[in-house]
Amino acid sequence: MLNIKELVIATKGKLINGSEDFIPRKYVIDSRNVEEKPFFVPIIGENADGHNYIINAVKNGICGFFINKDYIDKQNVIDSSININKDICIIEVEDTEKALYNAGKYNREKHIDIPVVAVTGSVGKTSTREMIASVLRTEKNVLTTKANYNSLIGAPIMALEMENQDICVFEIGTDMPGELEKLSDLVKPNIGVITVIGTAHIGIFKSREGIFKEKIQITNHMINPALLVLNGDDDFLIKVNSNDKYNVVKYYDNEANNIVQNEDNTQFETSIYNKVSKLVINQIGTHNVKNALCAIKVAESLNISPENIIKGISNYQNFSRRLEKIYLKGNITLIDDTYNASIDSMKSGLKTVNELKAKRKIAVLGDMLELGDFASVLHSEVGKIINTLNYDSVYLFGKEAKNIAKVIEKEMKVYHYDDIDKLIKDLNDEIKDGDIVYIKASNGMKFNKIIDALKSR
Fold it and tell me: Are residues 308 and 442 in the same domain?
């Protein structure tokens, strides 16, 4: 971690107030998140300027903050903050967002001896990251990305927490060209992981080839000896081989055998250090097997014992809103998969729930966003998948979700809504004892409203 003097050096800033020796232990961009007396970074967004919340954050107990030198009310904010807390650390910078990035990069370089695993990909970044971290924690002190801190704002916050860990497992994502280059330069991975080249953000990158070109930039700033762990079943990643910059290790579906999905866990067999082992993932979803295979390759490269690899995979805990089981009154099971949605994750979720036991299965699906010109055809693919599965009814919401309904040929109840409140009312009226309700859409569709309504039944 950096003291204030190092923060000033890293950001080319100017110390307005506070001690050069003070060390912030936490950084935040939300002025309401002030536990542990963090250092506040006011970000200028499309809808709000974080500078407007500095004084409230100071009142709530932050230890310091960046401030743009051109902020119109700068002097008033500085004077008011010092009046509230004479020891408050204030650093004037050219641009707060760039300052955050540069500070994170500086701290990573300060702790360049700490190995970093960086995980990216179109689908499965978070679950794969957590699977890897769960395995490594059995033997090491691990720092891993919190929540969704995988962007040019979130990743620097995580890099600023590097201090005395044995290893770090960071997730890095992108929704604009060039971001992976900057993130690779920030975290400088020793081990890079790419889960899959899918269609998430394809509306921005125009093609899967464009997405691949972006994701492979994770290799641009890898530290030797560098290792790249890839999904060998992906038609783009299979073409990537070892070179003078990095070695490549691939994991494949056929490395897992005897896969069994139970009601609350998934079991399979695979080879660990060339010896067949039985493993249990205490989550539903056979897609987790692929994440485990990736984690095994990373763990083997770091000489984690076979026993601890098995233990770490068993210890893995999924995040909320990712195939999260919620039990409602009346023996109704809600599967909340609303964290986000892509064609791959929606297909996987539908298939996973299809294998669970229930009197009836109901799917509630919304639009997958940021697909651009590919939206119509990819939503149609969802309908084709539903034709192969055993759902009793499908509730759809959103402009693009109409394309799902158009191709459903199997005999079942299919409803499309333009009014989410009407959907909630009708769904509440339909679900009965013994039903499973699977809910999936991009986060921007705000399906948490449906989840909350059903939980309050």
Answer: no
Cα–Cα dist 172/126, whole Å:
9
Mean pLDDT of 387-408: 96
Distance from the first to the final alpha carbon of the chain: 47
Amino acid symbol at 383:
G
Task: Tell me if 376 is assigned to some domain.
Answer: yes
Please state the pTM of the whole predicted model.
0.91
Interval 185-244: pLDDT, tens = 999 999 999 999 998 888 899 999 999 999 999 999 999 889 999 999 999 999 999 999
* 300 burial type by CB count under 10 A (0-12 exposed, 13-18 middle, 19+ buried): middle
Residue 369 φ then ψ, to 5°:
-95, 170
66 and 138 in a single domain? The answer is no
pLDDT at 55 over 80: yes
Q: What is the CATH number of the domain that holds 141?
A: 3.40.1190.10
Say if CB 304 and CB 335 are below 8 A apart: no
- Encoded tokens for 338: 């609303």
The answer to whether the Cα torsion of 128, 132, 134, 135 is positive or negative is positive
